[in-house]
Amino acid sequence: ALYSLTTCMAIAVAFLFNDLFHPGRPGLIPLPESTGQEVAAITVSLKDTLMNIVPDNFLGAFVASDMMQVMFLAIVVGIAMGRMGKYSESVSHFIDSANNLFGTITAMLTKLLPFAVFGSIASMTVSLDFAAVKVLAKWTGACLCALLSMLFIYLLLLAVLGRLNPMKFIRKFSPATFTGFVTSSSNATMPTTMESCRRLGIAPKIYSFSIPLGANVNMDGTAIMFTLTTLFVAGLYGVTVEGSALASLVSTIVMLSFAMPGVPGAGTACMVLLFSIVGIPPEAMSLVIGAIPLIELFMTAGNVTGDGVVSTIVA
Q: Which residue of 66, 100, 264, 306 has the fewest C-beta atoms within 10 A of its own C-beta?
């Protein structure tokens, strides 16, 4: 319920900053020519999302980095282990050992990611059309201001619902926030997020469930980026998003924020779907794709912080 609440707040914040900044208007920059190809209509429904939680096979969930399917398997395995008697101890030991192994590998890889981030930003700088820098800077500024405002809302929720001093939370949870910023991946940040939750005094039975769940369904930063980017590009094309298109856009963003994998680049793939809902050609993605890696840094930091805030309030 809290994850759903913060997602709705995030979308509302995105609409607010779109109205404040008005980053996209027709005629500001040259638009890419359409190739005439249309994106096939896709609907994202609650039924499909729930059905997709059940994986086709045991290993497929891990290969696809689908955390909802992984959690489903964890519940099934947990129930089965409770019925295994003396054999459950050896299975539990194997799972703990595998968890420590992959956690160590992830920690090793994250130490190299700053170099990848540098390369990504350098590539973005080279590929940008400098005539469009001013317009893109306004859209980027709107996204960053919205993301920072969402962080303030998190701290307000901590004070009101959790009755906790926000400064105490910031001091103990900041390593997870910075790791999320560097990795651009909620999943890769989970070991650090759980350790920060432990330092906050949250019981393992809470954060061992709430953090993996939040890494998949609590994509508030993603919801902000989706909303502002779609409205920005729609404005450049002179498309007015209202009525049924607006309702469809908001509902799809909510479902995508629940169902999207917490890995770098997943948001880019989902953006074309949102463009098709409001009638924007897929070529429009070329306008923003260069700046998205920069926004994803702040976006993931916000997602991770939201996971920690909700876990703390529940605790």
A: 100
